[in-house]
Design a protein that fits this description.
The chain has about 525 residues and is α/β, with parallel strands linked by helices. The radius of gyration is 24 Å and the shape is globular. Helices cover about 30% and strands about 15% of the residues. The chain is built from 15 helices and 21 strands.
């Protein structure tokens, strides 16, 4: 293997002319003694994606990648040395004071007209990319019953309703045993409420309750939760309560759920796809299992696609508080106005305080997999994460659990956990999800199609039936960021129109993860 590596031309990638490190692009890394054209001779074996010192870096020298100081040399690092997390001291987090407010005005390009997809238009004007029956649960206690009912609905009822894509149980671990009136408790409640109103569910809602839980149905979905359906009366949803005296035995519970579900299936089955402008899309962007290539291939390509979506009038959300925190100055400068910049600062400040209460150090964000993929710390990871937002002005901020109210590029303030982030983007109204990964993850959501994007061609080949798009050609020089961005943009329109993703084919669906900053009782 070492001999094969020597024979392959060494390839190093730097992100900026001011960088004093570069990453190894070769599959499986490079051995000691490999000499990159115009670069140093490696002093030790360096894995793929990991950094090599381009020049001598004496102890204490700022180490730059993306033309950003990602750390300081913890020891003398000669040119050709491996630069990794053990050999770097992390810089202090940037202050939230004195930040640039709406100072960067980058030209985005003209409006993109004429791009469409085939979606499901709802009465309130929103458009879904899928036609799903969603069953909302008020408490974890009913999850087993609902899971059993969903299996029966899928096998016994769904085949009769060919225009309905699937049935989805909105299960979670909330609803009782919590301080439901404590500060912060409104976040999981409004999250579940707004997920229940997701456009992919067609404005038809059924709820399964136990009966004795703290999160009562009328608190979850109070009158007026559906403004467009106010004329329907005090309650805009159908309710099955398992503790109802009419339910004599388990089969009676299942029968009641199935009867209610069939009424909703009949309504949903009347819906048809129709041509909708790309401006009706609500796309969530996320990365997980990130590596050093995330900021080189997949995320820059996705950032270009995000700009195309914004130019087409769509709504695009990027997230993950701890993965943008070290680039806060970039975000506040891109805010469309000073009010939006201050909202960004307020949300990240709130999350700083939340982490401080839990005594969580920001260095905890990078995972063992991130580090194995070449990311030394959260600063480096943040720089690669932010680029998926493209260059559009940030037109708004969505607080945790709230619904997006404006179009353009939005910052949805979420924790960095894949599952919590995806759940909160669903609540914000996301109808299509794009997820980039370098290490690989079978992550998926039942409520929206998830387009999985590989940062490396080796991963795309190995997980050929899990990854929808391979962006590794950017690193090898076989594709440009612009070409990849257009590919992603077209893929989004195709998937929004009904093309299945791999996660849909294999039904790789993770449970909802409600963000609950309130204490547990």
């Amino acid at each position: 293997m070492a001999q094969d590596l020597v024979q392959e031309t060494p390839r190093l990638i730097s992100m900026n002319a001011n960088d004093n490190v570069a990453i190894v692009a070769n599959d499986f890394g490079l051995p000691a003694g490999a000499a990159a054209p115009g670069g140093p001779t490696l002093r030790e074996r360096i894995p793929q994606g990991h950094k090599v010192a381009l020049v001598d870096l004496p102890k204490g020298t700022p180490v730059r990648r993306y033309d950003v100081v990602i750390g300081y040399a913890a020891e003398d690092l000669p040119a050709g040395a491996w630069v990794n997390e053990q050999r770097l001291d992390m810089p202090a987090p940037p202050s939230l004071d004195g930040l640039p407010l709406a100072t960067r005005k980058s030209p985005l390009g003209g409006a993109l007209d004429g791009y469409t997809f085939e979606g499901f238009r709802n009465d309130d004007g929103s458009v879904g990319t899928r036609n799903l029956l969603a069953i909302t649960t008020t408490v974890q206690c009913v999850s087993g019953v609902v899971e059993h009912a969903v299996k029966r609905i899928r096998t016994e009822l769904l085949p009769r309703y060919g225009n309905v894509d699937d049935v989805v149980a909105l299960e979670h671990i909330y609803g009782c045993g919590v301080a439901i009136d404590a500060p912060g408790a409104e976040i999981p409640i409004r999250t579940l409420r707004n997920i229940s109103l997701n456009p992919n569910f067609g404005g038809t809602t059924m709820v399964v309750s136990l009966g004795c839980e703290k999160l009562q149905p009328e608190r979850l979905l109070p009158k007026g939760a559906y403004p467009s359906r106010a004329a329907m009366g005090a309650r805009d949803y159908d309710l099955v309560t398992l503790q109802d005296n009419s339910h004599v035995g388990f089969e009676a519970m299942i029968s009641s759920i199935m009867q209610t579900a069939e009424q909703h299936l009949a309504r949903l089955d009347k819906r048809r796809r129709q041509t909708c402008p790309a401006s009706d899309l609500v796309v969530g962007l996320q990365c997980g299992g990130s590596d050093a290539f995330s900021g080189v291939t997949a995320n820059p390509g996705l950032g270009f696609a995000a700009d195309l979506l914004v130019r087409a009038g769509a709504t695009v959300m990027f997230s993950e508080n701890t993965e943008v925190r070290d680039g806060i100055a970039q975000l506040t400068a891109r805010a469309v106005n000073e009010d939006v910049a201050r909202e960004l600062i307020a949300e990240l400040g709130w999350y700083d305080n939340y982490l401080e209460r839990g005594r969580v150090d920001r260095s905890a964000n990078t995972t063992p997999g991130n580090k194995k993929g070449g990311l030394s710390n959260i600063v480096e990871k943040a720089m690669g994460s932010i680029v998926k937002s493209g260059s559009a002005p940030i037109s708004g901020v969505v607080r945790p659990g709230e619904r997006a109210k404006t179009k353009g590029l939005l910052y949805a303030a979420t924790p960095a956990s894949d599952f919590v982030c995806g759940t909160l983007q669903l609540a914000a109204g996301m109808t299509l999800h794009v997820f980039t990964t370098g290490r690989g993850t079978p992550y998926g959501l039942a409520a929206v199609p998830v387009i999985k994007v590989a940062t490396r061609s080796e991963l795309a080949r190995r997980w050929h039936d899990l990854m929808d798009v391979d962006t590794g050609g950017i690193a090898s020089g076989e594709a440009t960021i612009e070409e990849t961005g257009w590919q992603l943009f077209r893929t989004m329109l195709e998937v929004a129109s009904g093309r299945q993703t791999w996660t849909e084919k294999w039904r790789l669906h993770n449970s909802l993860a409600l963000f609950n900053p309130a204490p547990i009782t």
